[in-house]
Backbone:
């Protein structure tokens, strides 16, 4: 297991300063060199939206975007995130407006307890960045590492397809206005 | 009253926005000034004597605020679910891998780890008792000194079982085995304790029963319950394992000892090793029937391994016995219920309270019977199914049972049961396809004779907005949405105008535990009653103002409604008027689960009387080379009485099915000599997205006539129950060979495969 908040002995303390872009803000943060990205986000930056379900890379509750790719933040040391661009669940909302994916998750009951949702949202967000009309199969592949104990993943599939449709219409509209 | 405006309609949960933005706070997310990190030291042995326990070195370490052992507990050193037989911190012996020995609070996780490492425990390992059948012997060493290893042994009888078996055309006898199953909620157990200004203790608790937590925390602290407050923040799943308390009591003890906030969250490994599991059971089962397939008798013996402490074992095993005959008319039934103490993992509640084990057995028997008699599995179930008015083997007269046969027929139609033989059964030489069904019942509520009530407080303000205070824990199952919908429906407002406070013992009266699919009924009724009282006041004011008689008035979509048409006066106007004229819009209501007295005496103790009926049919593909089973399709039809919140109902169904598929095929805690070999999400195999087939779910509504809000009878437990027997029966259909043990892993399937069949 990689060292995290709950790890066994961590000593001596080796502090590092890390500079990265989080949710659009350039951020400088001091943390222990052995901290994971997950616990740097949660403990040092107070971004507790990203969850810890196992700290061993098995559940996907901690998924965040790092340089446009979804990664398990419990499996990445904070110093490895130096200079990267990170998006967490807190960064999906723009100007007080929910991302269509966030709204769709609520409308389709893509969650119950909601503990898997931050990681699930980011995995789906990453998918929609590269695929504006994903099939059921493609959505399942995108969330293959995201464990949900409350649902049977059907609401997630529905939510992603609903959000994708909305985003497509939006894009079409913008294209039209651009012309 | 007019048609329903809100009940039965899709709506997002009141907390959805917080959840999708990451603002929802669960126990691990709580951060308070000066908060210490709490940790527990757990036993590495299944059974050992504590020879020495020395914490003085740990106490001296820098950054350590408190180290406590059993000696430092000011009040009672025990949990109290039913029987106070489990210590909070071990005294002289540890009895399972996971018994807690000491607790620490320190400035951060590293200091807490250092403190744990500095605690000196000298153990003398003792020979453990791991086989329940051996533990039952009168000569066996006692797991818990002074307590019989057999913690429960009861026989329930109705009719003349032996005579019925004697007269039967066919008798089928089998022994079934089920496994330890892990809840694996995504948020592990946790709590945050803090000291209030007056010396009282507040605990944020990831739990199902805040008021019972409060009692237990107060008991451990030796404080009055009025000095303890329990608040549930968002909860990341529970499924029964957070019914009984876990570390929230220790969080309270540590906060008290350290006189500062303490954050105590288990790690995943600790969680799997320490919290209760679904009971493994050995069930001997005899079914007797006529050659036409009519059931004559059932005789069963259930032996459950409860681990060392009682927790909710009595309740679970009692419920297993209560449903042991299934949703069938069985006039002669005998069930022997035995629960045994061992040094294996502690067991307790897990979605369904023993009903999943029972259903795996009775539904497997049904298919064995159908095969032997060459009767269609659907027909044999329809032939024996209970009906409205049937007096069950428990003595309960079923008040509404239409859902039993209706769910069977609907499910058969959805999957085209009659035409299943037209589907390719042998798509490749090594692949076999099969179909299997299971139909079950699960009672809602705790049972007749048990204390089963819930209270709520409802308040409408001058601007028409409403606060609903309830102590019913929402672990994701959606009771908050249901309560908000019911209140909104009756007050004629939209859900957004209602703020539901999360469960807090200081704000709301006891609502009992969120378990046994009971909250929709008890809290639901309490909400309706409270809302109706406010509604009455509002309508009274409307009468005074409009001079129109009350029976022509209604509240809907924010307006007063006269003869079905919106009036210009709004609910807000009425609320403001109430404020000005001094009419309080405040109601408190306590609702008790209703058990009518004008019915025949119920013979099975603590029987439930409101039943969730459902049928699942699975289509599976078995790979005869690897032993791998793929669930290709699953249809599920559930009778919920009345659907209040469709999102929640369908969510509970698909989530239950996913858990049921895991229980059927992969989930098994491997325990050897009391030690768990797979305490991680990597090695305890839970269904992921690709393991769940596309589901076809249908909800049917046969309103429950007594004691159910608008007829609703809850849904939470039923969906996890049928998948295991349905899949088992489908594998039987595919291979022509029955299985009698869960989970049905490749290692258990391969030995029965015969490709020449
Ligand atoms: S917390 Fe990172 S994968 Fe589970
Ligand atoms: S909603 Fe609870 S784990 Fe996914």
Residues:
């Amino acid at each position: 297991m990689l060292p995290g908040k709950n790890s066994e002995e961590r000593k001596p303390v080796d502090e590092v300063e890390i500079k990265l872009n989080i949710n659009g803000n350039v951020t400088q943060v001091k943390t222990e060199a052995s901290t994971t990205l997950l616990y740097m986000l949660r403990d040092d930056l107070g971004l507790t939206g990203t969850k810890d379900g196992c700290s061993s890379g098995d559940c996907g509750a901690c998924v965040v975007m790092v340089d446009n790719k979804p990664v398990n933040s419990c499996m990445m040391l904070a110093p490895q995130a130096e200079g990267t661009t990170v998006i967490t669940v807190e960064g999906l909302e723009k100007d007080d407006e929910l991302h269509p994916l966030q709204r769709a998750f609520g409308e389709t009951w893509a969650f119950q307890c909601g503990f898997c949702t931050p990681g699930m949202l980011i995995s789906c967000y990453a998918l929609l960045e590269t695929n504006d009309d994903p099939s059921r199969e493609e959505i399942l592949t995108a969330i293959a590492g995201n464990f949900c104990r409350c649902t049977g993943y059907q609401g997630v599939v529905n939510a992603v397809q609903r959000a994708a449709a909305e985003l497509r219409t939006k894009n079409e509209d913008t294209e039209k206005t651009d012309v | 009253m007019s048609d329903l405006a809100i009940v039965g309609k899709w709506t997002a949960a009141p907390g959805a926005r917080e959840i999708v933005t990451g603002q929802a706070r669960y126990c691990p997310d709580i951060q308070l000034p000066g908060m210490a990190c709490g940790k527990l030291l757990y036993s590495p042995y299944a059974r050992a004597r504590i020879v020495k326990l020395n914490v003085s070195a740990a106490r001296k370490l820098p950054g350590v605020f408190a180290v406590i052992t059993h000696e430092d507990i000011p009040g009672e050193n025990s949990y109290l679910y039913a029987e106070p037989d489990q210590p909070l911190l071990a005294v002289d012996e540890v009895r399972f891998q996971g018994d807690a020995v000491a607790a620490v609070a320190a400035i951060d996780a590293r200091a807490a780890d250092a403190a744990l490492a500095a605690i000196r425990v000298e153990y003398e390992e003792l020979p453990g008792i791991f086989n329940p059948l051996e533990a039952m012997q009168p000569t066996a060493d006692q797991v818990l000194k002074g307590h019989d290893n057999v913690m429960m042994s009861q026989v329930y009888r109705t009719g003349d079982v032996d005579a019925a078996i004697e007269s039967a055309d066919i008798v089928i006898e089998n022994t079934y085995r089920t496994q330890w199953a892990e809840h694996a909620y995504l948020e592990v157990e946790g709590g945050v304790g803090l000291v209030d200004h007056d010396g009282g203790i507040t605990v944020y608790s990831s739990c199902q029963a805040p008021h019972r937590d409060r009692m237990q925390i107060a008991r451990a602290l030796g404080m009055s319950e009025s000095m303890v407050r329990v608040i549930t923040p968002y909860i990341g799943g529970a499924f029964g394992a957070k019914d009984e308390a876990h570390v929230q009591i220790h969080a309270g003890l540590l906060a008290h000892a350290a006189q500062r906030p303490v954050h105590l969250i288990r790690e995943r490994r600790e969680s799997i090793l320490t919290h209760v599991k679904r009971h493994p059971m050995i069930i001997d089962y005899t079914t007797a029937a006529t050659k036409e397939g009519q059931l004559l008798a059932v005789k069963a013996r259930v032996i459950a391994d409860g681990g060392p402490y009682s927790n909710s074992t009595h309740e679970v095993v009692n419920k297993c016995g209560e449903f042991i005959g299934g949703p069938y008319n069985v006039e002669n039934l005998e069930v022997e219920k035995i629960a045994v103490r061992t040094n294996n993992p502690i067991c307790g509640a897990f979605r369904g309270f023993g009903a999943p084990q029972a259903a795996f057995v009775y539904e497997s028997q049904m298919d064995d019977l159908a095969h032997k008699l060459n009767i269609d599995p659907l027909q044999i179930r329809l032939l024996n199914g209970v009906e409205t008015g049937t007096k069950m083997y428990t003595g309960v007269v079923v008040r509404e049972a239409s859902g039993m046969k209706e769910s069977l027929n609907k499910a058969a139609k959805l999957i085209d049961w009659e035409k299943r033989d037209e589907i390719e059964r042998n798509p490749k030489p090594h692949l076999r396809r099969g179909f299997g069904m299971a139909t079950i019942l699960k009672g809602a509520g705790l049972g007749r004779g048990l204390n089963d009530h819930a209270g709520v407080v409802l308040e409408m303000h001058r601007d028409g907005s409403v606060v609903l205070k309830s102590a019913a824990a929402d672990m994701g199952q959606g009771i908050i949405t249901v309560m908000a919908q019911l209140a909104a429906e009756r007050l004629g407002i939209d859900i957004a105008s209602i703020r539901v406070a999360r469960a807090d013992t200081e704000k709301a009266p006891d609502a009992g535990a969120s378990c046994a699919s009971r909250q929709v009924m008890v809290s639901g009724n309490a909400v309706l009653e409270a809302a109706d009282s406010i509604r009455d006041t509002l309508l009274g004011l409307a009468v005074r103002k409009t001079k129109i008689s009350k029976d022509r008035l209604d509240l809907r979509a924010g307006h007063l409604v006269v003869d079905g048409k919106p009036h210009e006066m709004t609910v807000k106007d009425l609320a403001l008027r109430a404020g000005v004229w001094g009419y309080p819009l405040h109601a408190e209501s306590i609702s008790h689960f209703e058990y009518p007295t004008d019915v025949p005496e119920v013979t099975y103790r603590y029987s439930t009387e409101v039943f969730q009926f459902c049928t699942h049919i699975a289509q599976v593909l078995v790979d005869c080379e690897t032993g791998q089973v793929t669930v290709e399709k699953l249809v599920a039809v559930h009778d919920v009485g009345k659907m209040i919140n469709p999102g929640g109902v369908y969510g509970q169904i698909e989530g239950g099915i996913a858990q049921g598929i895991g229980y059927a095929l992969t989930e098994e805690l491997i325990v050897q000599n009391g030690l768990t070999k797979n305490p991680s999400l990597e090695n305890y195999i839970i269904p992921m997205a690709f393991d769940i087939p596309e589901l076809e779910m249908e909800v049917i509504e046969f309103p429950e006539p007594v004691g159910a809000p608008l007829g609703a009878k809850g849904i939470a437990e039923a969906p996890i129950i049928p998948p295991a027997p349905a899949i088992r029966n489908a594998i039987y259909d595919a291979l022509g060979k029955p299985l009698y043990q869960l989970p049905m892993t490749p290692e258990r399937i391969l030995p029965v495969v015969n490709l020449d069949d």
User: Anything to note?
Assistant: The CA atoms of residues 48 and 168 of chain A lie 31 Å apart.
